[in-house]
Amino acid sequence: MNQSDLWTPARRIEQAFARALRRLARRLNAIVKGLRDPRQIIAALKRYAQSKEFRQFAEAVAMKMVTGLFRDMGRTWRQAAAAHGMGRELYQALMQELRTGRKGERLDELITDTTYCIKTIPEDIGKEVAAYVEREALKGRRASDIEREIQLMFPQHTKARAELIARTQVSYTQTNLIKVRAEAIGLNWYVWRPVGGNKGDGRTRTSHRQMSGVVVNWNDPPAPEDLFPRYTKSGRPYRNTLGHYHAGQCPNCRCYPEPIVDLDLTTWPARVYRNGRITTMTRRQFEQVMR
Ligand SMILES: [Zn+2]
What we know:
By secondary structure, the chain is mainly alpha-helical. It is 61% helix and 8% strand.
């Protein structure tokens, strides 16, 4: 197994999480089925959002995803340590961290985060319905036409929303889990990797393809859209609404961080991101920056 395969996101866990959220989408569709008046739809979604059944569902699904990833990444770390001759001291620090660390606390945080994300789905969809009604009514459209459109669009929209959250949240959580452990054992740098290697897999956004192989510090997340701007036809760069973030931590991103366990495993010279710029560094230059 090569170094990169080790850190690729766990598809199995993402798929189970996506399945659960699609189940939620179907449930929401069933709840609003037959309701014509948008106000009734919004009220029904709100009622469901506040129900005990839904709260328990959100907590259970979040818990399963986060602890599943946590276990999986534990295995990855052990394999990385074993396969890549991680120094004995580092290895022991890692084992110690996996056994004792602050993982309980951090895991709770990540579970709460994911639960919250799931919990917002029904009410957010309700708000979108309300906004749509308002927008279309302002255009002077007939209420009955708007109602029909909502009924047509609702199932597809709900499903798309659930899938977006599934993709985004799994990779966000995975990056956090890698970060916590890497920092705990003093590995402060990682290599940005898009799914599918240097060229991406066809769905990778251009800026992230260009981030491929760039070395990043956990304390200094880059802004890929600023580093590799896209321009409008009139030659102005698109406004960057995503800001600074780590691999895997913006909507729909499936990139992942590959911790630098050993400088021997990185190809030098390498592109390194620091203070808002990417520069190409030799291993010697990087060693000085590392300190
Ligand atoms: Zn990405």
